[in-house]
Amino acid sequence: MRGSDTSRDPCPWVILNDAGGAFCMGAIGGGLWNFIKGSRNSPQGERMRGAIASMRARGPVLGGNFGIWGGMFSTFDCAMKGLRQKEDPWNAIASGAITGGLLASRGGWKAASVSAAFGGILLALIEGVGIGISRLTSATPPPVAQPPPPSN
After folding, report:
1. Which UniProt keywords apply (predicted)?
2. Is 3 part of any domain?
3. 75 within a domain of the structure (yes/no)
4. Does 5 or 113 have the greater pLDDT score?
5. In a domain? residue 150
6. Domains identified in the chain, total number
7. Which of 31, 52, 69, 147 has a CA that sits 20 to 30 A from residue 86's CA?
8. Which residues have CB under 8 Å from 81's CB, separation 6+?
9. For the chain, how long is the longest CA-to-CA vector?
């Protein structure tokens, strides 16, 4: 594909990479979150034991949820790149909408459409911020100084 990002793995491998990265992020964040939550909800003498039990019980669940979202998003992103033969922000926006809608499809059409809209809007905001930051941090070339006109 023209203009493809060569710093990332090719499309079939990026799905596994992103799903694993999302699982790790969700498991670590979910573990910390549930450790604090378990500590706060446990009786005075059982805080550490309750924190560890909550972290072990719920951390991997949140990691799995993140991993599924990351894997589905990357799958749809690769599919959009293949179908459209382009790499642009619209692929990520569409992938976010499709992923959100599909994950909420068990709740019916209304839940799926709301979740799809939310996923598309969220990815549009993320892509917009990314484009804005890249434009702000890109180095603009300094203006070329014009030599003075020759004097006779």
Report:
1. Membrane, Mitochondrion, Mitochondrion inner membrane, Protein transport, Translocation, Transmembrane, Transmembrane helix, Transport
2. no
3. yes
4. 113
5. no
6. 2
7. 69
8. 1, 11, 87, 91
9. 94
Beta strands in the chain (DSSP E): none
Scan for tokens 């799905």, then name that residue.
15
Q: How far is CA 23 from CA 48, 62, 63, 66, 81, in A?
A: 25, 8, 4, 5, 23
**pLDDT, position 5:** 56
Which residue in the block uniquely carries the two structure tokens 């450790």?
A: 35
Residues 48 and 93 in one domain: no
Q: 100 and 76 in one domain? A: no
What the block records as the tokens of 69 is 């979202």
The token duo for 136 is 């702000």
For residue 122 the two structure tokens come to 């969220």
Of 97, 88, 98, give the one whose Cα is nearest residue 1: 88
Same domain, 100 and 128: yes
**Could you tell me the residue range of the domain that residue 99 belongs to?**
88-132
Which tens digits make up the pLDDT trace of 45-86?
Answer: 999 999 999 999 999 999 999 999 999 999 999 999 999 999
Cα separation, 16 vs 73, in Å, equals 11
* Residue 4: predicted pLDDT: 52
Report the distance separating Cα 99 and Cα 107, nearest Å.
Answer: 14
In a domain, 22, yes or no: yes
pLDDT for the residue 94: 95
